[in-house]
């Protein structure tokens, strides 16, 4: 059922048709982009579960059998993410291999990753955020180095991605936030650091973990409203002034009093 739901929204992006959904737009935009880049023309109706795709090129949006495209590719990335995260935390190769094999043979993860769903995209950003945070923590002995800035910034990017797919991504934001508070508390208690250096640490985290994700999150919606410029099933959720900007709407280009 969800594949007919989000696959249809991918078609809306390809056709630039405005719609409304309870989830933020990033996941559906990426599904639409994957379909567009792989040659899908956005004409499949997605009316009910089980409808055959026939001649429609849907391979780019999900993986089927041996094909691992986009959703399936993102789902497969969870395995190395788990491996690298556990290896970094435990420094134990057997523990890292065990974590990777648990995901490789997890039926739920395999199933979720072969359909047009938001879940593999969400899990990709969730685990990406945790991996980036762990990698950044490993660079604590060389703060403000290129690798430290890279992993800190990548953590912020993944946080924006997680929140941009589903609001449940807020939980990884809270997780990273608690880790950041703990780090700053330890730095504040380090008497060898001056307040100026501590202030730099604080500003770096505000920049990469608050301002950068917020900027990316707002940009997602800017792209969303720019791409969807044609009248569609989501018009009625918005004001008359907004509807007047949608091509094909009854109010298009009509003068709307303030």
From TrEMBL:
InterPro entries: ArnT-like_N, PMT-like. GO terms for biological process: protein O-linked glycosylation. Residues 1-229 form the ArnT-like N-terminal domain. One of its GO terms (cellular component) is membrane. Pfam families: PMT. It comes from the Eukaryota. The keyword Transmembrane applies. The keyword Transmembrane helix applies. It is a multi-pass membrane protein. The lineage of its organism: Eukaryota, Metazoa, Chordata, Craniata, Vertebrata. It is found in: Endomembrane system. The chain crosses the membrane at residues 66-86, 93-115, 149-182, 202-223. The gene is Pomt2. Pathway: Protein modification; protein glycosylation. Keywords: Glycosyltransferase, Membrane, Transferase, Transmembrane, Transmembrane helix. One of its GO terms (molecular function) is mannosyltransferase activity. Belongs to the glycosyltransferase 39 family. This is Protein O-mannosyl-transferase 2.
């Amino acid at each position: 059922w969800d594949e007919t739901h989000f696959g249809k929204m991918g078609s809306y992006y390809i056709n630039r048709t405005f719609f409304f959904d309870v989830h933020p737009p990033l996941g559906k935009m990426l599904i639409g982009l994957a379909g567009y880049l792989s040659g899908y023309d956005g004409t499949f109706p997605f009316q009910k579960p089980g409808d055959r795709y026939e001649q429609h090129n849907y391979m780019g949006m999900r993986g089927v059998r041996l094909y691992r495209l986009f959703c399936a590719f993102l789902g497969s990335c969870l395995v190395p993410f788990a491996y690298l995260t556990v290896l970094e935390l435990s420094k134990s190769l057997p523990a890292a291999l065990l974590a990777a094999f648990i995901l490789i043979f997890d039926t739920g993860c395999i199933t979720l990753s072969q359909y047009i769903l938001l879940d593999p995209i969400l899990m990709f950003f969730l685990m990406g955020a945790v991996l980036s945070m762990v990698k950044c923590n490993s660079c604590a002995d060389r703060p403000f180095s290129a690798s430290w800035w890279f992993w800190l910034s990548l953590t912020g990017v993944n946080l924006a991605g997680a929140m941009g797919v589903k609001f449940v991504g807020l939980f990884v934001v809270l997780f990273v936030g608690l880790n950041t508070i703990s780090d700053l508390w330890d730095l504040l208690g380090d008497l060898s650091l001056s307040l100026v250096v501590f202030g730099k640490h604080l500003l770096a985290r505000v920049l990469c973990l608050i301002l950068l994700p917020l900027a990316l999150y707002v940009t997602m919606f800017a792209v969303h409203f720019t791409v969807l410029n044609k009248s569609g099933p989501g018009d009625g959720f918005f004001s008359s002034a907004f509807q007047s900007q949608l091509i094909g709407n009854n109010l298009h280009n009509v003068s709307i009093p303030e």
